[in-house]
Amino acid sequence: MQFLKSFYIHNTFFRYIAVLAACFVISYWVPLLYPVAWVLILVLLALFLFDIYLLYATGSSVSARRRLPKKLSNSDLNPIPITYSSDYPFKTYVSIIDELPPQFQKRDFEHTSSLSKGERREFSYNVRPVERGEYVFGNLIVFASSPLRIVKRKFVFQKDETVPVYPSIIQMQRYDFLAIGNRLTEVGLKKIRRIGHTQEFEQIKEYVPGDDFRTINWKATAKQAQLMVNQYQDERSQPIYSIIDTGRVMKMPFEGLKLLDYAINSTLAFSNVALKRNDKTGMLAFSKSVGPFVPAIQKITHLNTILEKLYNIDTEFTESDFGLLYATVKRKISHRSLLLLYTNFEHISALKRQLPFLLALAKKHVLVVIFFENTELEKLIATDAENLQGIYHKTIAEKFRIEKRQMQKELRQYGIQTILTKPKSLSINTINKYLEIKARGLL
């Protein structure tokens, strides 16, 4: 049974059969070709048996290994390397099939190559998950054939390996490296000049053009006989909370990824940057009920706690209760904090229903309301209308875009910080706003 399960006919064999059939057909008009065709059949049969002997005379002469990471990063390209080798004493042609998880909906994965005796090779492919959870990779299958390419032998390796897909770890690491080297401007983050005295004193340094003259230290200037200024840095260990709305408004997908997952990826990347800048970070999820809550702590290992809580968050079909959010924040967050609220409003009436609760939150805390541009509507607006129906659709789309701007202006009128962003630019704009608030000393 093992032999039958591993035994396959190569496609080239059927080409040989087609040639022989053509010979028999032609022999109807060319009789001399008829005995030649029978000789060719006997030759093919001998080669068929010889090919079986070549492939099955030894044991497992082909090996392959798939190296999966411990965690996959959601919404990112994750490389999956595969190494394979052959111990056959002849040139081996291999076809590698990896049974990908059903979430990817890919059933045509195949990699073909050839190997000399004892040769070892490696290739990698990328997968981009768009949902968190467990992904099961099936069998790693290798079909080997000899230079005759008449039959194939099937080898099966690494059955059913499960890998969890976590929030975007790759994106978090990307901003992490840039934050350590103070190179956040390379990915579009604004460079903000820090001024004023609402920050912690760091050192006294020589005056250079561009420094605020109000920070001149006259005593140090008299001692050094040159202008010296006080240098300040951001106040540290301030509590910052990412609050994620898990209601139905966060189910909308853009580029295959739900708004909730954009918010989760941004929370992870932002929390890492804030921790590296010595602030306390925490998170809270809410909808009709209160979800996971992580108190703000200034500890790098605290990021793992946030990551595990974010992994299990999912959207609900109900409308979120902002009154419950206000009561929860009032009870659990006693110190003045920076609250980053990830939510979405598609209509100005939806904002007005929740505005009293947002104003109540903004009285004690620095509240930043983050909501999203509808990029699909932007594409519709950018296209030319070809008929009356197209004009109608563009008009409605422009109306929704204007309403988004009106919501942003209305929140600012009440002193509430806002971020209106495209989903893919969420992390960059969130970190920008954090740096701006720290620079202005609003917290």
Question: What does it look like?
Answer:
The chain is of the alpha/beta class and 443 residues long. The protein has 3 domains: 1-166, Immunoglobulins (Immunoglobulin-like, Sandwich); 169-193 and 235-440, von Willebrand factor, type A domain (Rossmann fold), CATH 3.40.50; 200-233, no CATH class. It is built from 12 helices and 21 strands. It has helices at 2-6, 11-26, 33-56, 169-180, 218-224, 259-276, 302-311, 322-332, 348-364, 375-382, 388-413, 426-440, and strands spanning 7-9, 62-66, 72-73, 78-86, 92-98, 111-115, 120-127, 133-137, 140-145, 151-157, 161-166, 200-206, 228-233, 239-245, 253-254, 257-258, 280-286, 290-297, 338-342, 366-372, 417-421. The chain has a 6-stranded mixed β-sheet, with helices on both faces. It has a 5-stranded antiparallel β-sheet with strand order 1-10-9-5-6. Helix 2 packs antiparallel against helix 3 (33-56) and helix 8 (322-332) packs parallel to helix 9. The termini are far apart.
Task: Give the integer mean of the pLDDT values.
Answer: 88
Briefly note the structural class of the backbone: alpha/beta
Distance between the termini: 72 Å
- Measured by DSSP, the beta-strand proportion falls in 25-35%
Widest sheet, order of strands: 18-17-14-19-20-21
Pfam family, one: DUF58
Keywords: Membrane, Transmembrane, Transmembrane helix
Protein name: DUF58 domain-containing protein
